[in-house]
Automatic annotation (TrEMBL):
Xref: Pfam families: LRR_8 (PF13855), LRR_R13L1-DRL21 (PF25019)
Protein's name in the database: Putative disease resistance protein RGA4
Stored InterPro entries: Leu-rich_rpt, LRR_dom_sf, LRR_R13L1-DRL21
Gene3D superfamilies: Ribonuclease Inhibitor (3.80.10.10)
Every R13L1/DRL21-like LRR repeat region domain range: 119-242
Highest taxon, organism lineage: Eukaryota
């Protein structure tokens, strides 16, 4: 960087210097002459070091150096920046030394506990606000050590507690987390890598009334989940990689029998990699309401879960299930699911049935993949004729296409792959919006209504491949009516199939793959 700071006196009064996304690799030592500088941003640059002279900017209030991948260390005397209020960075290796001297700090995104950074350094940062990630909590010695941080006195919006490994086995990790109780105004809390067997009482005793986001990740020894149902403002709940949790039962929802609305504000619930989870129950008492506002539900890689309760989720918009090896059925029905737009079920090899989808009158995308024991998709698809746009059926045991599918005039994409019990495909001619049709690897299909397909006015892509029993491909101009067709991929049919139709010339200048 050309040192222009000495060339003009007008820089002497400079208060804001924004160098983000520039091609600088260094700052000149003379930057210390900008003694009135309040704001400095070198984010998204290739800068390798900040000069020691920067610590003489005694009026500097904001320093930003995010996405500086070449930056390896900070000046030793960062403690001299006594006016610093906002420090923005995203590399846990760039936590300033002696951060406790920066008593005016309001923004500190990351703090790493270690030999050079004791957790008690946070004690003096009484003005700290916003978001803070605390890493390597396994290095906190005991409850007394954790209490010195005085987190409960800091009005943080978001806290992330991270343990990197199991550290010192002599440390009572449950006492440490208990002593890290945040201020009651906290909005978002993440606990990751915690190896205690239980969560602290402050997570279950209505002491987090304003909590909106809770994430529990890799809490490998926890056997019981904290009570969350009474958190009146909780909107996002994510629980992942907690292999010792075997059941989600009534104690998860509420400790009080008087609670009638549980999780009243929850919009998103995710269960990921809960390897030991076998049972999930919901309260069934008269008048109970559970998840009345839930919009997104994801259950992924819960290999032992046998059933999923789905009753009463009238606000649900997206429902995703994946990698649940033992899942056999969904408990309940889709009655009242009038807001559901996405239903995706993947990788559930023992799933034998699902409820009727005909009441999901807002359904836009239905994706069922890798459920080789699923013999049908029940329900009258005529009820979905104005909403359904994408239907994907992969590796299923279907003997027939869903009832009423021919009425779905809004359908734009239809995928039928590896449905090896399917014998016949017909009655698609009314799918006036269909743009893409793929039929692959359906070994038992012996006939397709080609003349019906020629009546699809919007079809752009057609693929029929790997259907080893298919032998009826007429030599008539069966595809001549497909005026919008741009790509055709066919092949892998029965050896008894007669010659490919000569009148394929109707597809002039379009792509043909055989």
């Amino acid at each position: 960087m050309v040192d222009v700071l000495n060339r003009s006196r007008k820089f002497k009064s400079l208060r804001t210097l924004k160098l983000q996304r520039s091609n600088i690799t260094e700052l000149p030592d003379s930057i210390c002459k900008l003694r009135h500088l309040r704001y400095l941003d070198v984010s998204h640059t290739n800068i390798k070091a900040l000069p020691e002279s920067i610590t003489k900017l005694y009026h500097l209030e904001t320093l930003r150096f995010t996405d500086c991948f070449w930056l390896q260390k900070l000046p030793k005397k960062m403690r001299n920046l006594v006016s610093l209020r906002h420090l923005h960075f995203d590399d846990k290796n760039l936590v300033p030394a002696d951060v406790s001297f920066l008593t005016r700090l309001q923004t500190l995104p990351i703090f790493v506990v270690g030999p050079d950074h004791k957790i008690e350094e946070l004690r003096c940062l009484n003005e700290l606000r916003g978001e803070l990630e605390i890493w390597c909590l396994e290095r906190v010695r005991d409850r007394e050590d954790a209490e010195k941080a005085k987190l409960g006195e800091k009005r943080m919006n978001k806290l992330v507690f991270k343990w990197s490994d199991e550290g010192n086995s002599s440390v009572n990790i449950e006492d440490v987390l208990d002593a890290l109780q945040p201020h009651s105004d906290i909005r978002s809390l993440t606990i990751e890598g915690y190896w205690g067997e239980k969560f602290p009482s402050w997570m279950s005793m209505l002491q987090l009334n304003n909590l909106m986001v809770l994430r529990l990740k890799d809490c490998s020894n926890c056997r019981q989940l904290p009570i969350h149902g009474c958190f009146s403002r909780l909107e996002i709940l994510e629980m992942s990689e907690m292999p010792n949790v075997k059941c989600i039962g009534n104690e998860f929802y509420s400790s009080s029998a008087s609670e009638e609305v549980l999780f009243p504000a929850l919009k998103e619930l995710r269960l990921l990699g809960m390897d030991g989870l076998e049972e999930w129950m919901v309260p069934g008492g008269e008048g109970d309401q559970v998840f009345p506002c839930l919009e997104k539900l994801s259950i992924e890689w819960c290999g032992k879960l046998r059933s999923i309760p789905i009753c009463g989720l009238s606000s649900l918009v997206e429902f995703e299930i994946a990698g649940c090896d033992e899942l056999r059925y969904l408990s309940g029905d889709f009655h009242g699911f009038t807001s559901l737009q996405l239903l995706s079920i993947e990788g559930c090899p023992k799933l034998t049935s699902i409820p009727s989808v005909q009441h999901c009158t807002a359904l836009v995308k239905l994706d069922i993949d890798g459920c080789p024991e699923l013999i049908s998709i029940p329900g009258d698809f005529q009820e979905l004729k104005y909403s359904l746009k994408i239907l994907s059926m992969y590796n299923l045991k279907l003997g027939a296409l869903p009832s009423g599918l021919q009425c779905c005039t809004s359908l734009e994409e239809l995928y039928i792959w590896d449905c090896r019990e399917l014998i016949h495909i017909s009655d698609l001619q009314e799918l006036s919006s269909l743009r893409r049709l793929e039929i692959r690897g359906c070994d038992k299909i012996s006939s397709i209504d080609w003349h019906g397909l020629r009546q699809l006015p919007s079809l752009v892509y057609l693929e029929v491949s790997g259907c080893r029993s298919l032998s009826n491909f007429p030599d008539d101009d069966c595809l001549g009516g497909l005026t919008q067709l741009k790509e055709l991929a066919i092949g892998g049919f029965s050896e008894e199939l007669e010659a490919f139709p000569v009148k394929i010339a109707y597809l002039n200048e379009r792509i043909l793959e055989i």
